[in-house]
Amino acid sequence: MKFGIYENKLELFDGEALHGDEQRDKMLLMLVYNTGLQHFIDLLPEESKKY
User: Fold this and answer.
1) Number of domains the chain contains
2) pLDDT 10s digit of each residue in the chain, 51 long?
3) Which of 18, 21, 40, 50 lies 20 to 30 Å from 31 when distance is taken between CA atoms?
């Protein structure tokens, strides 16, 4: 995976921004940690919040 910090881009590999479940999980946890869980939930569509 390539990430240009000043370019603000992720390079896609076979149509995926992250390779494998482990990298994807780590990125998701990092993003939720940085934004906060409540902010993440607020961004979800209403139909996702019903469950």
Assistant:
1) 1
2) 555 556 777 777 787 777 778 888 888 898 899 999 999 889 889 888 776
3) 50
The confidence score (pLDDT) of residue 51 equals: 61
User: Is 2 a domain residue?
Assistant: no
- Range(s) of the domain holding residue 27: 19-51
Q: For residue 30, give the nearest of 20, 40, 15 by alpha carbon.
A: 40
Does residue 46 belong to any structural domain of this protein? yes
**Contact predicate 11/1, CB 8 Å:** yes
**With DSSP H G I counted as helix, E B as strand and the rest as coil, what are the percentages for the chain, rounded to 5?**
55, 10, 35
